[in-house]
């Protein structure tokens, strides 16, 4: 998987991943986010979060978490002996990645398709890469459009600033 970094506002490839595992060099066969995950509230092994704790950590609603599970965006969530959902640090990492995908504007159907490919395993690496590369191209196009928009706004702000100073200069005479 190609790992992407943001440096000085420009997305550039970073070849820190290896072909047998993930970006951390672990050969787990699991898909990971490109950036290191945020620190977790609980260490691995003690990471059994209730849905309300996940809501507090992620900012997502309980309804959204249940919906993600229902549509297949979240893999199987463990349950306590009373049937309550118990999320893990791995689930928090996945939710962080899903949040990044949402920010790209990726359609939910494509996110679900990506999640299904992750569950299918290594045989889908090429398809996953193609989906992420397509999304990256879309994001870079939107960034360029937004940069053009910012340039227009900057020109207008400058114009109004200059016009305002000129008016004040006329009043002072």
Could you state the order of secondary-structure elements as H and E?
EEHHEEHHH
- What class, by secondary structure content? mainly alpha
Strand content: 5-15%
Rg is 22 Å
Shape descriptor reads elongated
Low-confidence stretches: 1-29
Annotation field: number of helices: 5
Q: What characterizes the major β-sheet? A: 2 strands, antiparallel
Description:
The chain has 173 residues and is mostly helical. The chain has helices at 51-58, 62-71, 89-104, 108-120, 125-172, and strands at 3-7, 10-14, 78-79, 85-86. Strand 1 (3-7) and strand 2 (10-14) form a beta hairpin. The radius of gyration is 22 Å and the shape is elongated. The termini are far apart.
Topology:
Elements: E1 3-7, E2 10-14, H1 51-58, H2 62-71, E3 78-79, E4 85-86, H3 89-104, H4 108-120, H5 125-172
Antiparallel strand pairs: 1-2, 3-4
Question: What are the salient characteristics of this protein?
Answer:
disordered N terminus, 55% helix, two-stranded antiparallel sheet, elongated, 4 strands, 5 helices, mainly alpha, 173 residues
Brief overview, please?
With 173 residues, the protein is mainly alpha-helical.
């Amino acid at each position: 998987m190609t790992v992407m970094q943001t440096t000085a506002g420009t997305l550039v490839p970073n070849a820190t991943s290896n072909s047998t595992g993930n970006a951390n060099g672990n050969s787990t066969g699991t898909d990971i986010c490109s950036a290191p995950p945020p620190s977790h509230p609980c260490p691995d092994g003690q990471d059994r979060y209730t849905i309300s704790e996940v809501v507090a950590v992620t900012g997502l609603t309980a309804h959204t978490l249940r919906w993600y599970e229902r549509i297949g965006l979240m893999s199987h969530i463990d349950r306590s002996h009373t049937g309550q959902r118990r999320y893990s640090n791995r689930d928090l990492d996945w939710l962080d990645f899903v949040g990044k995908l949402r920010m790209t504007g990726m359609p939910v159907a494509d996110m679900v398709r990506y999640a299904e490919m992750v569950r299918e395993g290594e045989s889908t690496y090429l398809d996953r890469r193609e989906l992420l590369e397509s999304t990256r191209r879309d994001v870079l196009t939107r960034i360029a459009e937004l940069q053009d928009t910012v340039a227009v706004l900057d020109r207008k702000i400058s114009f109004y600033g200059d016009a305002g100073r000129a008016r004040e200069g006329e009043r002072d005479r």
